[in-house]
């Protein structure tokens, strides 16, 4: 039995060896799968880290763009405020200019009216000067005639002088021309 026990032991050992080899092969296969899975996980971690770096860069770029947009907005607000002040100043100037133009038109109208009155006064003065010249001529004619008639009628001279005085009272004194 020693041989049978040795053969059974040998067969047990061979079975165990086969099982051990099957276990080793399975272990190697599991190890290879684990290595591949580990490599896949490492690749995925690297990919996720790359994605994370890309996202961080995108976030940084977005923050830079946001800061630039915020600065641009602030500059635009300041420019709008300055433009509003300029528009207000221009509107004030326009109102002042409109008032000055109205005053200028009013003064021009008043000057035109004064010029019309001056022309009318000058025409009246010319007319009065003509009337005065005629009255003086008439007075000279009357004086000459009265001198001739002095010997005839002394009261006629007095009447002529009174008529001359009455004519001179009716005529206003000539106003010197401003020309």
Would you kindly provide a written description of the structure presented here, covering whatever features stand out?
By secondary structure, the chain is mainly alpha-helical. It has one domain. 92% of the residues lie in helices and 0% in strands. It contains two helices and no strands. It has helices spanning 2-149, 154-170. Helix 1 packs antiparallel against helix 2 (154-170).
Number of strands: 0
* Order of secondary-structure elements: HH
- Stretches where pLDDT is under 50 for at least 5 consecutive residues are none
Counting H and I runs of at least 4 residues, what is the number of helices?
Answer: 2
Strand content: under 5%
Give the count of structural domains. 1
Terminus-to-terminus distance: 170 Å
Mean pLDDT: 84
Largest sheet: none
Structural class, judged by helices and strands?
mainly alpha
Helix content: over 70%
- Please tell me what the overall shape is: rod-shaped
Q: Radius of gyration in whole Å, from Cα?
A: 66 Å
């Amino acid at each position: 039995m020693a041989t049978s026990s040795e053969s059974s032991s040998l067969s047990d050992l061979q079975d165990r060896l086969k099982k051990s080899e099957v276990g080793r092969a399975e272990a190697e296969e599991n190890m290879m799968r684990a290595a591949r899975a580990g490599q896949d996980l490492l690749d995925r971690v690297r990919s996720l880290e790359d994605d994370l770096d890309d996202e961080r860069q995108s976030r940084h770029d977005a923050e830079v763009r946001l800061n630039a947009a915020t600065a641009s907005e602030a500059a635009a607000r300041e420019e709008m405020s300055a433009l509003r002040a300029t528009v207000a100043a221009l509107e004030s100037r326009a109102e002042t200019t409109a008032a000055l133009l109205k005053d200028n038109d009013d003064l021009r109208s008043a000057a035109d009216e004064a010029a019309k009155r001056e022309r009318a006064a000058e025409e009246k003065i010319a007319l009065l000067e003509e009337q005065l010249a005629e009255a003086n001529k008439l007075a000279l004619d009357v004086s000459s005639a009265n001198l001739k008639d002095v010997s005839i009628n002394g009261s006629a001279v007095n009447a002529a002088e009174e008529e001359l005085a009455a004519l001179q009272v009716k005529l206003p004194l000539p106003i010197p021309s401003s020309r």
